[in-house]
């Protein structure tokens, strides 16, 4: 793949990430939807408390997904700062993924919203 194509891919992925951050930032309900304090093993020791958010994970997984589609070898070696798994106070766990079919990703996020909006 030519360097100009790689640069174009990175710009497209950055634009997608920006769009996700903008949408989540505009909607307080989305902004507050999922925030988790990182466990000690994942925590940055520079901070007393270290959090990950749904926005962090969605952006990270979007970058990994779209780069993997165009450059599989590179995509497989992208490791983000955040784990893509969240656990609520009841111990329920959900893993955030970006699927090849947009509808599948939308379904996962709809389930996530339902679980968080209507807890048992």
From TrEMBL:
It comes from the Eukaryota. This is Inositol polyphosphate 1-phosphatase. It comes from Elysia marginata. The lineage of its organism: Eukaryota, Metazoa, Spiralia, Lophotrochozoa, Mollusca.
């Amino acid at each position: 793949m030519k360097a100009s194509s790689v640069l174009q891919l990175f710009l497209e992925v950055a634009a997608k990430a920006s769009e996700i951050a903008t949408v989540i930032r505009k909607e307080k309900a989305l902004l507050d939807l999922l925030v988790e304090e990182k466990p000690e093993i994942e925590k940055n020791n520079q901070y007393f408390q270290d959090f990950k958010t749904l926005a962090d994970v969605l952006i990270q997984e979007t970058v990994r997904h779209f780069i993997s589609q165009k450059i599989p070898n590179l995509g497989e070696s992208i490791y983000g700062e955040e784990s893509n798994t969240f656990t609520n106070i009841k111990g329920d766990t959900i893993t955030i993924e970006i699927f090849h079919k947009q509808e599948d990703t939308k379904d996962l996020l709809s389930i996530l919203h339902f679980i968080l909006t209507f807890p048992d």
